[in-house]
Each structure stands twice: as structure tokens, then as C-alpha cells.
Amino acid sequence: MGSIYGKIFQISTFGESHGAAVGVVVQGCPSGIDFDLDFIQSELDRRKPGQSRITTQRKEADSIEVLSGVFEGKTTGTPIAMLVWNGDQRSKDYSHISDQFRPSHADYTYFAKYGLRDYRGGGRSSARETVARVAAGALAKLVLNQLGVKISAYVSQVGKLKLNTPVEQLDLSLTENNAVRCPDPKLAEEMFTYIDEIRKQGDSVGGVVSAYIQGCPVGLGEPVFDKLHAELGKAMLSINAVKGFEYGSGFDGVALKGSEHNDIIVKDAETGEIKTLTNHSGGIQGGISNGEPIYFRVGFKPVATIMQDQDSLNEKGEKITVSGKGRHDPCVVPRAVPIVEAMAAIVLLDFYLRNKLIQLSAL
Amino acid sequence: MGSIYGKIFQISTFGESHGAAVGVVVQGCPSGIDFDLDFIQSELDRRKPGQSRITTQRKEADSIEVLSGVFEGKTTGTPIAMLVWNGDQRSKDYSHISDQFRPSHADYTYFAKYGLRDYRGGGRSSARETVARVAAGALAKLVLNQLGVKISAYVSQVGKLKLNTPVEQLDLSLTENNAVRCPDPKLAEEMFTYIDEIRKQGDSVGGVVSAYIQGCPVGLGEPVFDKLHAELGKAMLSINAVKGFEYGSGFDGVALKGSEHNDIIVKDAETGEIKTLTNHSGGIQGGISNGEPIYFRVGFKPVATIMQDQDSLNEKGEKITVSGKGRHDPCVVPRAVPIVEAMAAIVLLDFYLRNKLIQLSAL
Amino acid sequence: MGSIYGKIFQISTFGESHGAAVGVVVQGCPSGIDFDLDFIQSELDRRKPGQSRITTQRKEADSIEVLSGVFEGKTTGTPIAMLVWNGDQRSKDYSHISDQFRPSHADYTYFAKYGLRDYRGGGRSSARETVARVAAGALAKLVLNQLGVKISAYVSQVGKLKLNTPVEQLDLSLTENNAVRCPDPKLAEEMFTYIDEIRKQGDSVGGVVSAYIQGCPVGLGEPVFDKLHAELGKAMLSINAVKGFEYGSGFDGVALKGSEHNDIIVKDAETGEIKTLTNHSGGIQGGISNGEPIYFRVGFKPVATIMQDQDSLNEKGEKITVSGKGRHDPCVVPRAVPIVEAMAAIVLLDFYLRNKLIQLSAL
Amino acid sequence: MGSIYGKIFQISTFGESHGAAVGVVVQGCPSGIDFDLDFIQSELDRRKPGQSRITTQRKEADSIEVLSGVFEGKTTGTPIAMLVWNGDQRSKDYSHISDQFRPSHADYTYFAKYGLRDYRGGGRSSARETVARVAAGALAKLVLNQLGVKISAYVSQVGKLKLNTPVEQLDLSLTENNAVRCPDPKLAEEMFTYIDEIRKQGDSVGGVVSAYIQGCPVGLGEPVFDKLHAELGKAMLSINAVKGFEYGSGFDGVALKGSEHNDIIVKDAETGEIKTLTNHSGGIQGGISNGEPIYFRVGFKPVATIMQDQDSLNEKGEKITVSGKGRHDPCVVPRAVPIVEAMAAIVLLDFYLRNKLIQLSAL
């Protein structure tokens, strides 16, 4: 359990880090979508290891293969299965940890829960499973693009280096221009240098990915438990290494007064559209989108794998030393940007579809 | 849609702020639980309005009534329906806003989504629906108590007044001793005074509720999407006015290095239990509980209802002035404490049940 | 578990035969439906005991009460809670069976499954829970009516007395004219006499309810597991005392050849509509409605409660005699007619809503 | 939607008849199961085309490939993805029907529902998708075997040739000895001859598959909607070409009196076990298994594909002649036997797991 997500646009993922393949079956994708395989591959390439010297040097081709649900270039409305074969597995890299519990990894909890575990590269707990998220998210993006919804994520913090510019003043088209995926070129350079230092220390560091969603129609999100931001929060928190989620004014909004925080509703003099003067609500009110841009922040911890010796236990409960080996990311946020976008796309499309069922007059 | 929560211990809630009743049908509650109605009522009393002058002065008896699923004092394994009749409704208080969109409320989004809305007291979007959460959560607590799990929430911030003491050094038995529900008596007084000032200004202010869970067994939570903290995050974010969620080291952990953040695994010399020296993980690794205390923080915005005039629009799109009337909370966090506990209980019990199905040897 | 049904139009039911109330929370009902309480009550009246001397003589007012989700006569899109208070409970009628396992009842299986049970009138296993189905089904009918879908059920067999007239030659408006709910007045009389004899013998007898659905649009039903007839089958089989379900040609179709069974597709010369010359398919092909009338048969066993002494065991495993007492139906099918219609309505509306999400061009 | 089945042991299937592959992702399979790939392959071989001259002559190797969830020969508790590549596709066989609606096929309904369709061999509506069911069902059987549950299906009717021997008097070990899969060798021969005649006529004929389940523990099944037989019914009705389902006394039970039909409960003098003297209940009472053998019958129509010319329409609504080509089964029931077993296994394991959550004392 745990590997299914979504209610209408529903994905079921599978695969271990060093198993045969990782993949996803997408249920509930509408028929008639132009299936742009190149776009899906390009999203996977954004997530791929080995993009620069500050990401893991593992080489994985990560070529997407489509097994079903597409006919003559269009989705047919039936399940779409996609997978990526695991190439550069190097399982022997991990044989030395076959009975070790690495600190702050999922080794111990998986072992305790299941009674056994695929220890190679973290098995199912590895961030390699995000390949499936990015593939499914790319498909969701294809649909959302046709509906006018645009999702942009970017790195807004690495360690203590924080981007303080309001998102409206950023040029988000610059995000993909640097290896860090920070739209402020100067700060991006500082971040790069800092991550590279951390890498040389054999250490790791955390960061924040921010997301900004434009063109989302009014009405997405459901009352009570399935509020739009609640589901976005779950989606983000389910990504490996995420420790926090906030949207709109977030934790900073706590210290404000209602009279400062409330977003005054006005009518645009020209277009006649209803909008708000400020957007502390982050585009969501009462759990339902109000047409303003949606924005949120996702906090990632420093990844647990470091190239240093650490005390720990093995499966027998004996004291051991876990020594840092293998090839890992010193800072996960640059590669997390497409993953955040993918999960946001999956949530938004699911809610888009759920919202079609609401009014009698629309049936 | 949106009013069902949980996979095994599954709740279906209903009710508008000024409708006949609010309530819940609980599916999947195990049979044989001693059904302690007094305890459930006492939890509702902690949530009830009118507890002090810093909470809304609405008078609601909020007496719980049980319609099914209990026989001779024990749960029977069949659905348990519970409801609270809405007493002090004063619907006329709201007639003046029948076509108004109050700023940062859900009036506009509900109207746009559904084409009509129950405007009385916010209808379904009112925090009155949390009555159902607290009732279901109290039932979950009854089960968890028998399983040794203890959930404690408390107010850790009001506006800029922040409790910085680590939770291990707090005496959480003091939480219920003051109207603010802050376990630090001195800070609680400051917070009370501050909220009272805000109240006199006709304004509102935000705050933070922290939660601390002891006795949670190893193994709760599912890989990938249904990580324990992801579901806790969704549960908390679904509570009215919540803007952020973080667990363990949270957003502060972002700035740490892996070598600082990793929790070293050790064996307790006396008990032989596996534990960690630090707990930046917040009791959850790879989405699965590791037996350490679980802790998290939930950020609440200042509530949107204030006793001041604000510009806005009505349903026709005409400019209006929304004037502050009615009886509302200047700061929502004191009454949110039992709600946070309730949602945590619902999530934990659901995952407890899901975890029973994992190993062949346990079947 | 087990008391939730539907994916979009989703009902959650509760209540024991002799508990406080039976009821339902309906999630996912579209907003803007004219909520006709009288119609819902009239459907419950069709199911009510005591309608004639061939149904149980229990007196139950079965007045429906609506607690939420309706405002100014229209559904609001939020959960609709409805309940019926249990009036004429006479619990003492059942005290003598508190530890008895009645033959072919659910007494033993509930006790074994849950470790305890509400023995009064069968508790949750009583057909009294169908009150909730009929209420929710009536609501579904209100929506379907506006969409042009008409569901008619009728009694087509009692014991060996079988209605052989093809449905197209029946006048279904006659169904409600007699206590048996058989549209053939002459056969209805014979059936009435037969059931009355069975009643006098203190025995019971089975029967068949047939259903006929007109106006169902093309496209309802989902491929593979959620085929329209598969879900209709589950819905019918979930009704108390049902032993079999067949649609279209059913079990008789087994003996046909493909060349006899296939429904030739033609275009209506006048309307230009696509239809089939015969309808062995029962209006469903590949699990998806094709626009032809949908029809199916539901077989009910003789109810287990009879007014005769029977050998059995009690909870301790001791031999006992179960003596027939209480007030029960000698033949369940006349009162099952509205229940079959209700379940059909719930399934069809759910599939109607699910079908809105299919094509990109419809989003 | 529609391709996901089960609540805990949950399968998500994919694949078209002439796409790249058909497969399944199984979620919720317990960890620690000995994964017997040979057994799974042997089940697929029972379903495979080309087993005798009365089944389709298509040649498909149908080799199962496992992509995830298994490590060192055991299930790990994570999703198990299995697939079969489509080999002998011969897509050109179908080019002539690319715009044709074949009578009593799903061509028209899929086209109407989705706006386009993969016409090759029926695409997703082809019975080829049952490969995924059999693979997942074989896995479920592996678990059930360890729990002592044995599922046996067999052909009990072909056309009008009907097996009337009660199941208790049959030697079910003979089922696999003949191409028809009828445990009565003499009748099997008659059936074979009859099917072969039908084949020579270019026609098809229907049949019935019966199932018999031994060793099912007391307590499987949930009250109200998820009754064990209701879910079994849905599972069977979801198989291609199925028109009816009955369990226990079935439609024949309709004509019985309660005094004849009730199963008297007794204690076995030797074992002390509670059992019933007769088993009209079919092993299920109140929707919950009572420990007696479960048995049911599944009616299959004659398959729609025949080797004869038939009138029909094309996508433009023009009159055409559909001519019989390709390679198909004159009678589907011999190959349906393993499919019925597979679906029964999936349902039973899912309910087995759901039943572990019931009593507090078991938590």
C-alpha cells in the first residue's frame, strides 16, 4: 500500500532503485490528448542524475517506454503504463550495507515493518521512485497545458542562502539556465559554489523549492479534508527528504493581524474579472482556488547519505561503522524542482477533473 | 466530495454551521472498544466556543448523540454515527451578508464552484465542521489509548510570542491549565493579554499549534505517497486557517548539514531497544515511524473575520462594505489544540490498522 | 468497513435494526438539484412494512429527516445527511434470541467475525438498513429524472409462479396497483394468494425482481473491472436475501449460438439514431451502455425467518430450538422492488458522473 | 478508470490486445511470501490460446516478467509489477475493421465513450486483458495456499450440455485432464465434440463455469455493500462475456420455501466445529463466510466473434457487412476456468486482509 495517488487521475507506481525497472500506470487520463513523448522524456532529463558536478555522478539513461493507452499519437482513455529500465545499477556498491541501518535512512523502519528489505540502493525507499512521479506528472502537464495552467518551480534556498525577491519580480524563465535551478543568476552562482564545497566535505545540505502556478481556474479543491492546499501539502511531503510545506503567507502569516492579512476582493476595471489586491491566501480560499496565482514553499532536509563515517547498528543490533560510499547528491533541491512540478501537476489535474462533477447545470 | 477521510478507519462528515446538525459516520472502527461517551463529550468541550473571553462568545451546548454502532457499551464493528445538534444558530446575524463575499473567506470560491451557497455562518466552510473531527478523533483516541499511544498538542506561538523551550523540557500536563493552552504558564499569560488586546481592536491574530506523540510503535506509515508525515500534513492542512506544516527539524533543518542532521542509531544499554541519539527525523524515517516521539508544528493564519469595515464585492460584482458583526475568535489556536490532536489520532489509528496487514507471518 | 458505496456519488450508511436510527450521508451529489422531500418520503413509503397483510405487520413511520446539504430547497454540493428514527422497536421481542444462532441468518457469522453482536432484530444485518439505500436512491432518482433516465422494477416471479411476458409487452404503470408489485394483474392475484398461504403456514418463499431502465445515455460504465453490469450486479447482490443476478440474455443466453445472440447494429431510418435490432446484450456492450434499454433479473431466496421451530446452536455451542416469533415478511420481493430501483439509481448516477471526465474535448 | 480492483490487495492493470504489453501492478501484497514464478507461469499457461483445436489458434508465448517487489525470492511488501509482452500481434488482421462496429462487441460503445479507440483486436476491451488478472490471481493463490484456502473452477455447462452432478460427488482433480476442463470425462467428450462442431460452423456457443472454494475461514466479507458474494459477483461479472452469477442455491432457491432452504446449524460430534447440515447458503451468510464450502456459477454468453457475415454500421453510420476473420474461440469457458479462479483468489485474499482489522483483541 502507499504507492497509489489521486482519485480520478490516479497513478500507481512501482520499482526499486536496483530492481529491473521503475514505472507507473496512469488511470483516468482523458482520451484525445496529444501524447508528446519528447516532452515527457525532457522532463525526465531535468530530473536525471549527472547533470552537473553538484549532482550525483551516477549515469542513468532514464529512457521512457510506453506500454499501453496510446494509439496513433493520442491517449485512448485506457491505462497508460510507462517505465524506465534501470541501467547503471552497480549493485555491488551496496553489498557492504546489506545488513546495515544507515542513519536517517529508511533501512531500519523498512526492516522493522516488512521483516526483510531490498537493501540495494535503498530499494523502494530510494528517490529513484520519483522517476515514476516525473513521468506521470509530465503527462498531467500535457493536459494542463491545454487547459491554460502553467506550473513553475525553482530553488529559493540552499542552506542559509535564501532568495528573498518576491516571485512576481523574478524572471522564472531563467530557472533552467543554471545547474542550481535558481532564477536569480547571481545567487545561483553562490549556491553552486556552496554546494560544491559541501560536496568536497563529503557532506550534504538542505534547501527550499518554491512553486508558482498561473492560470489555475477558480473552483479547484474540495471542502473539508480534500482542500487544494492540503492535497498539495501531502503531495509535496511525500517527496523524499521533505520536512515542511507552507503556502501563501505560510508560517510568516502567523504573526500578522487579520486586518493586514485579509485579501481585499475587487473587480478589475478593464477585464471585469474578480481578483484580490493582495494574495496572502496563496490563490486558495477555504481550500478552493480563487483564480489568483498559487504559490507554496517546500523544505528539504540535507540528504542522509554523506561520505563520512557514522556510528550505527546492523540488523542484529550490533554496533557498526557506516562508511560513506557510492555516488549521491550533496544537495537534492536542483533535481527536486521537476519533481515538485510533477506532483503539483498530478494534484491539479486530479482536482480539475473532480471539479467537473459539481453543478447540475454542467452535467 | 472532500468530506471523507481515512482508508480503513474512515470518517464521513456532514453539516453546515447553521444547518440542523453536524456529525460524522465512522467506518472501520474495530469491535470491542469500550465506548466512553463522557470522554468524547469532554473532548468536544475542549473545542467548544465560550470557554473564556478570548474565544467566541457563541453558546453552543455541543452535546454528542450516538445513533449506531455501539451496543451494551462496546463498539460492534459496524458504522458509528455521531452528531451534535446546532442550537444557538441566530441565523439572522448573517442575513446581511447573504450576497456578500467576505475578504479571505470561502464565500466567493464556494459560490463560483457550486453556483449557490449556504451563506449562514459560512455554511460548510465554517470551522463548525471540526465538531465532527473532534468526535471522530476522540473515538480514535479511545482505541489508541488501549494501544499505548498518547497525543498531546499545545499552543507554541501567538503572533510573535513564541515558545522556544524544547518539548522535552516542557511539562505538557500544564497545557489545559490556562485558556490559551500553552504549557508555559508565564508565556500563556502574555499570550492571553495579547489576544485580549487584539480582540478589543476588533482584529485577529495567528499562531502555531505544536504536537507531540509518544508511544507510537515502529512501522506506521506506508512507502512513497502515504508516508506518515505526508498524511499528517494533509490532515493538519485540512483544518481551517492552517497555512503551514513542518515535522521534525522542519524548515530550520534546511540550513543544517547532513552530518549535523543525521540521527545516530544506538541500542539502549538497559532496555535493548533501538533508538536514536537525536531526533531531527521527528520520529519518522522514510515515511515510517521509528519509535521515537513524533512531533510537528502547524501554522494558523489570523482568522478572516474581524470586527472592522472592509471593502469587497457582492455576488453581482458590485462594490460593498463588509462590516464586522457576529461573534468570532480573535485567535483560533487555543480551540485548535483539540482539533489538531483529533486529526492526528485519526491518521495514526488508520495507519495502525493498515500496518496490521504487512507481514505474512502476522496473517 | 463495507457500508460505503460509490466512487463519486458516494453513500455512507449506518444504523442497526433496533438502534436509535438508520441513515446515510451522501457525498458527491451535484449542487443545484431541486430537493423534493415528498418524493423521497414516497419512496420510503413504498418500502415500508405493513403495506398489506402479506408484508410484515411491524408499524414504522419511517419519516425521513434531512440534516445537511440542502439550502432553500436546493442541494448545495456538500454532504447530505438523512436519517429515519427507529420507532416501533419492541426490543424485548428479541431478548429470547440474545444468544441464539438462527438458521441461515447472520447471527453466527457476525458473532464469529466481531466477537460480539447487536442481536436485536439482526442488528446491522437486518434488512432495515435498506431504508438508507432507498433514501439515497431516491435522491439519485431526482437527479436522474432531470437527465431523462427512468428506472422501473417489478416482481416477475414468486416461488414457481413466473411472469413470462417480455418486458416490452408489459404495462409497467400497473406495477404499483397491487400489493405484490407485479404488472400483470391476474398473475399478481395468484401470487398474492400464494404468499398469503405461505404466511399462514408460517413459512416463507423466494422470488425474482426484474428491472428495466430506459433513457440511459450511451457511454456509462468503465472498462475491465467497473463494467456497468458488474457494478449493477454487486449492488443487487448486496441486498439482503439476493442469491443471483443476470442481465440481458442471462443464464438462458448460455445455450444460444453467437449467430443467434449477436445484436445487429442499425440506424433508425427516422431518427438517425444508432440502435440494435435485438437486445440480448441488455443495453450493455463491453461493460458500457449502448443506449438500448438495460434490463436484469435479481433472485431472492425465501427469507430465513419462519414461524416454525428449528434446531440450532447458541453462542456456547449448545443445541437449542429456535422458535418462530416476531413479525416478518413471508415473501420479500414486493418490498424489494423500491430497493432494487434505489440501488440501480445509485449505480447509474455514479457512472453518469464518472463518464463526464472521459474526453479532453469535454473538459 | 475502471482498471483498479481491490481495497487492500489492490491490482491496477493495463494493456491493449495489440499494444506492446499487458500487465499489472499489485499493491498491498504482504511481505515474506515465497514468490513461485513457475506457478504463476503455469497459471498463465492454463489461460493461453492454442491449447487444443477448440481454442483460438493464436500463438502467444505469454511469458511472465517481474519488474519489482520481489527480492531474493520473496515478496518485499512493495508493489509487484508483472507483464507479458505481446508477441504474435498480426495487426493487419484487423485493419479491415478499423472503422467497423462489430455486432455485440464493444467497438461502438468505446468509440462513443472515448471519441476514438484502438481497434486492433478490440484494444482494451479484448479478453487479452485477463492475462493480468491471471497473473495477479496466481500471486493471490500463492498467499491463499499458505492460508489453507483452495479454489477450484470447472466447466459445468456448454450450450445445453449441463453437468448435473452435485459438486461433492465430483472428482475435481479430473478437471485439467481434458481440453474442456469438465471434471466428468464422459460429458467432457460430448462437450468437446459439440464445441468442435460449432467451430466448424464458424459459430460460437456459451457455457457455465462453476467454482468451489474449500478451507475459507469464517468471517470473510463485510456487512451491507461489501458482502463476500456481492464482491465475488462483481469480480465474475467483470470477466468478458459473463451474463450472470448465482451462488449457493442461486436462482433455483427462489422456488423453495424457507423451511426447505434454511441450513440447520450443528456441532460436529467429533471435531466440535460448528457447521451446517445443508449448504444452500453457499458458504456465506449475511455476506460473511461461515466456514462451509463456497460455491457459485458464472454464465458466459456465446462470444460475439463468429466466422460468418453480419450486417452492421461503420463509424460514419453507413451500412456495412462485417465478415468473420481472425482466430477466435468458438467457446470461451475452457479458457475461462483459470480466470474465474484468479478473480476468486483476488477477492478472497482482499477480504482475508480486510478481516484482520476487525476485533480490538486482534490488534
Topology:
Four copies of one chain form a homotetramer.
Chain A (H helix, E strand, L loop, with lengths): L3 E2 L4 E5 L6 E7 L9 H11 L16 E3 L3 E2 L2 E2 L4 E6 L14 E2 L5 H8 L15 H17 L3 E9 L2 E2 L22 H16 L6 E8 L13 H10 L4 E6 L10 H4 L3 E3 L6 E3 L7 E2 L2 E2 L4 E7 L9 E5 L4 E4 L10 H22 L9
Antiparallel strand pairs in A: 1-2, 2-3, 3-7, 4-7, 5-6, 8-18, 9-10, 9-11, 11-17, 12-17, 13-14, 15-16, 18-19
Query: Biggest chain pair contact, residues each?
Result: A-B, 107 and 107 residues
Query: Can you list the strand order of the major beta sheet of chain A?
Result: 1-2-3-7-4
- Tell me the radius of gyration of chain A: 21 Å
Strand content of chain A: 15-25%
Report how far apart the termini of chain A are. Answer: 34 Å
Shape of chain A: globular
The main sheet of chain A comes to:
5 strands, antiparallel
Q: Strand tally of chain A, please?
A: 19
Number of helices of chain A: 7
List low-pLDDT spans of chain A.
Answer: none
> Helical residue percent of chain A?
10-25%
Assembly classification: homotetramer
Given helix and strand content, the structural type of chain A is alpha+beta
The average pLDDT of chain A is: 93
Give me a quick take on this structure.
The structure is a homotetramer of 363-residue chains. The first copy, chain A, is of the alpha+beta class and 363 residues long. Chain A has helices at 37-47, 107-114, 130-146, 185-200, 228-237, 258-261, 333-354, and strands spanning 4-5, 10-14, 21-27, 64-66, 70-71, 74-75, 80-85, 100-101, 150-158, 161-162, 207-214, 242-247, 265-267, 274-276, 284-285, 288-289, 294-300, 310-314, 319-322.
